[in-house]
Amino acid sequence: MSLFEGEKGNCYEVKGLYVEEGLTRRLQALGLNDGTVITVLNRKKNGALIIRVRGTRLAIGKHISQGIEVEEKCNEK
Asked: For 18-67, where are the E strands, in sequence order?
């Protein structure tokens, strides 16, 4: 599933990044690598997501979140 389909409060493990090469490198530099666990903190109406990655909060747009393949890891609700 894509990260865009993820629900607020759940955590997911990154399985792959399927966005432009430059954007992939930038996300990897921010800590979004295969196997990284991320938590969806909030969803905005325009499709943007606020996520927690390795203790840091990031805001990512709909286009980016649709290109991040994840697998559900835990449910913190």
From this structure: 37-43, 49-53, 56-60
pLDDT in tens, 5-27: 999 999 999 999 999 999 999 99
* Distance of alpha carbon 11 from alpha carbon 4, whole angstroms: 12
In terms of Cβ atoms closer than 10 Å to its own Cβ (0-12, 13-18, 19+), residue 62 is middle
Q: Is the pTM of this model over 0.90?
A: no
CA-CA distance, 22 to 1, in Å (whole number)? 22
Cα–Cα distance, 38 to 28 (Å, whole number): 13
Q: What is the pLDDT of residues 27-41, one digit of tens each?
A: 999 999 999 999 999
Sheet architecture: strand order including 37-43:
56-60, 49-53, 37-43, 10-17, 68-75
Quote the tokens at residue 23: 């954007």
